[in-house]
Amino acid sequence: MPDIKQAEHVLHEVFGFEEFRSLQKDIIQNILNKKDTLAIMPTGGGKSLCYQIPALIFDGLTIVVSPLISLMKDQVDQLTAYGISASYLNSSLSAQEYEATLDQIRRNKLDLLYLAPETLLKGNVLNLLYGLNVECIAIDEAHCISEWGHDFRPEYRQLSSVTEKFDNAVTLGLTATATPRVQKDIANSLGLSNANTFVASFNRKNLYLDVVNKSNPLQQVINFLRRHEEDSGIIYCFSRNQVDELTQNLNANGFNALPYHAGLGESIRTHNQNAFIRDEVDIIVATIAFGMGIDKPDVRFVIHHDMPKNIESYYQQIGRAGRDGLQSDCLFLFSYGDAGKIRYFINQKSGEEQRVAEEHLQKLMDYVEAHQCRRIKLLGYFGEHFNEPNCGMCDFCTGDTPERENITVPVQKFLSTMARTEQRFGYNHILNILLGSRRKEVLKFNHDKLSTYGIGKNLSRPEWKQVYRELMKQDIIVREIEHKSLKLTPKAREILKGNQEVFGVIEEPVQKKRTKSSKSDIESLDFNRNLFKRLKEKRMELARKQGVAPFVIFGDSTLIEMAYYYPQSEESLLKIHGVGRAKSKKYGTDFLDVILEFSQQHNLKERSKSAQPKHKPVKKTLSKNSRPYEVGHMFRNGRSVQDIASHFDVKEGTVISNLIKYVKAGESIPIDHLLDISSLSKSEMQRVRKAFDKHGHEMLRPVYDELNESVSYDELRIVQLYLIVENGSR
Ligand code: ADP
Ligand code: ZN
Prior knowledge:
Blueprint: H1 4-15, H2 24-32, E1 37-40, H3 48-57, E2 61-65, H4 69-81, E3 86-89, H5 95-106, E4 112-115, H6 117-120, H7 123-130, E5 134-139, H8 154-157, H9 159-165, E6 170-175, H10 180-190, E7 197-199, E8 207-213, H11 217-226, E9 232-236, H12 240-252, E10 257-260, H13 266-277, E11 283-286, E12 299-304, H14 311-318, E13 328-334, H15 336-348, H16 351-369, H17 374-381, E14 405-406, H18 408-420, H19 427-434, H20 440-444, H21 461-473, E15 477-479, E16 486-488, H22 490-496, E17 503-504, H23 529-546, H24 550-553, H25 556-565, H26 570-573, H27 581-602, H28 627-636, H29 641-648, H30 652-664, H31 682-695, H32 701-706, H33 713-726
Parallel strand pairs: 1-6, 1-7, 2-4, 2-5, 3-4, 5-6, 8-13, 9-11, 9-12, 10-11, 12-13
Antiparallel strand pairs: 14-17, 15-16
Helix pairs in contact: 1-3, 2-3, 15-16, 16-17, 18-19, 23-25, 23-27, 28-30, 29-30, 30-33, 31-33
The site of zinc ion has 7 residues, from helix 17.
């Protein structure tokens, strides 16, 4: 019986990879033992190896069923580059090509055969396959079997009756669908019992998640792209018009972008998609029509220029970034205006459909508005409990999100101006009153006589805009679509009466400083950029010559390692990540020549790969110039909270929040005098601690509610900080 040692050998020799990723080993072991299996892993998780490696170990044929016809050529190209004998049958082939492949099958020349489901169900193909030794049937995109999934394919329903007839074949279902309901449906429909289901975590660690307020989207996108020169990425827009417009604007600004949407002819779409896959264009600006047939591994960013439909589509779309495991950036430009548009569409619906759409929007808003690690809400949506104290890869955890502070006073000013003008006006008018403007409109209504006229001068226009955003976000006011006037909600009345405080972010959103914090082992190598560039050029040249996508030849991580270790011989080359025997033979001299020439010119010596520690600890650090870091440092040096607050001219509560971030990033602070600044009595303190015991110390809201809102957030935060430190900074 074949064993896992053999599989490891194939992993090293053929693929040039060092080790299996989580679950790959178990799944492959299962397949080798001919146990039917369902593998659920996120995009980029490494599902393909789960059938490709057994295919090389089995004597007979492995069939891969996939609905994504446009991907089959690239998949087969990739396998061929690894020296594996693979082919495909689908409607895109000419009669001649089709016949040639059938011939290969008849002569038992193939290890892997990719098929569209409708091709497999054809009588002549089935009859041919029945006569052969089929050892494994891998059903890719297995969620297509479920009517609950997003792309149900009726032909998938017939697959189980086909698989049954291949006595010697083990069935492997594969999907990246995270929804438990669909997962269950797949298992039932394919007859795969629970015992053989493997579910990987859906956390894509290498994706940096960032949500920012959309203020000037074109400029925001341009600023982002400037940090991503020469990277491949996708920008999602809501409508075809927006796609066309943004593409034009980007090209006018010197970027290299192509559009993709259903309004473009089929041939233009195919051309633009291929240009992207082959690195001939960097950026694709697209509607949701783009992406299904893309498995480009080195997509370095995904921007949501507009709101996605729901969390599931958002997750799927950002999932197209970073399949190769290298760090990739996901930017979501959010505005309440966009949410309002979606709400407007929802209101046109009715009944169950409306209810579901509302729920989807709400879940997305929860994600956007979360004042906690983005991964908690995102993974929580799929039923996964994420409880790392700091993911190091989202705007919240890297301290990019501004502090929340008590904004009750400006909020009251705004609301009372609304009340005094009978809720008949929009945002700009209210703001003009608050800022004491002499505009015609203001004077015409005698609004310069109001007691709130000019009382908002202590805040700038952008700061007022932030206050307004908080009001909308927290449902304190609503905007009437028809007349664009602002209305108070019952919450607003409580605030005006002084019964309720409001917390929010008032700081102007600043251009964020980012410290890349969670690089993979390969990315933390300080590789030679110039050599990397030359290697990329060589890759492009070879790809063009052979009519394949550049990543088919070598992935970026392989080139990065080459540009760090400067391998000078075939033996050293084989130690590089992603270089197996066949690729080394095929492309080795081409790349070695580039490296040798470059090394000679610059007097560089080969570095030995084995001397490098395999796993460097991944540090999740705060940037040294971030506020939490400075605050934590001062506190450690004995400065008091009051002292620090006056140094930075912020509230003590803000200092405490900074200390919480500092501690959550793994730093430590002395605990002895922490509670001195609390003004709670002993018994109150006990009540608070009990409430934290009950609800955990991650979130304040439940504790605040539990105590009937009797203890302020500032006080709660002090205790929270104490508990976090006491529990060993978890
Ligand atoms: P999925 O089908 O789950 O989206 P893929 O099978 O395409 O993911 O794998 C994603 C990327 O990860 C590919 O570039 C693949 O070569 C790489 N990969 C898979 N398994 C390993 C491994 N054990 N070590 C290194 N790279 C791997
Ligand atoms: Zn996080």
